[in-house]
Amino acid sequence: MADLMLGIETSCDDTGVAIVRPDGSVVASAVASQVELHDRYGGVYPEMASRAHVDAILPTVRQVLDDAGLTPADLTAIGVTRGPGLIGSLVVGTNSAVGLGDGWGLPVYGVNHLRGHLRSADLDEQRVTYPAMVLLVSGGHTLLAHVQEDGDVTLVGSTRDDSVGEAYDKVARMLGLGYPGGPAIDRLAPTGTPDVDLPRPARDLGLDFSFSGLKSAVSRFLAAHPDHPPENVAASFVEACLDVLVSKCRKALAQHPSRCLVVVGGVAASPQLRERAAALCTEAGVELCLPPLRWSTDNGAMIGLAAWDYHARGLQERPRPDTSLTIADW
Ligand code: KG4
Ligand code: ZN
Questions:
Q1: Ligand located closest to 167 CA
Q2: What is d(CA 151, CA 328) in angstroms, rounded to the nearest whole number?
Q3: How remote is the CA of residue 197 from the centroid of ligand 2, in Å?
């Protein structure tokens, strides 16, 4: 059996491993979650994350090979996240991948996590048509990028401070909803009425975003109105985030001719964002490309599929962790 990439993702708090074919079909995938570990601290505790990756990585690789009924000899290569992310977590992933590659005689590609999210939209089936406008909304990033079929990426907007995922997580914490905040806010918001007047920040920043003012506005409101129904605060916060994200996407599509809008990253798991993005695409006359929910949050499959792009370009060098990569980098 040929053409099988082992993808390994350890940039943050999930140990993701998968086996992926070049067409995006996923042969097997597993994610060892650390949510319970970090919930106690209300966010990711980096040193604990690294140690949990050490414990989880080899058993997760073994599980994926077993689930697929494969042995290491069946694999073509290994792709591993080399950045951006938490440095300790990246070191565990890249060192483990290099060790496995040496032991099994396989090439190892160091993959940009952001390109992994980008390629997540083509997992299971090819969806993206080019040129594409990509909205990447995760815990670490909020950005807009214009992408060509040859993999050339132009960053056209990004956040000047917090990412939208960070804002979700912090507001969830203020509301006592636990970690990670996104899913908890998404469950609460539809039960409330958006009756709190919150700012729509970054109106004047072109295609750039800013979410720290919104987060502070929620904090000030809660200090002044501690008994306001939390579901109404959550609903108002989600409305404000979505208004900003959708208006920036509308502007980006108007400025950069695109055949489709791709929405990826953990916050792309939000049903409300999916609905609003669909409405925008109908209005703008472009296709909407969304990865299935399970591929929106961090996973090994997106890294495996992105690794095929590195393989095609011969971009093989010993993966070195790099926390400063941008989406335009390989
Ligand atoms: O892409 P991701 O798994 O990790 C990073 O690369 O950062 O994104 C994690 C972020 C967290 O902030 C989490 O709260 C958010 O994605 N998230 C969601 C949902 N699921 C995860 N945000 C909104 N709605 C969701 N259903
Ligand atoms: Zn991510």
A1: 1
A2: 9
A3: 31
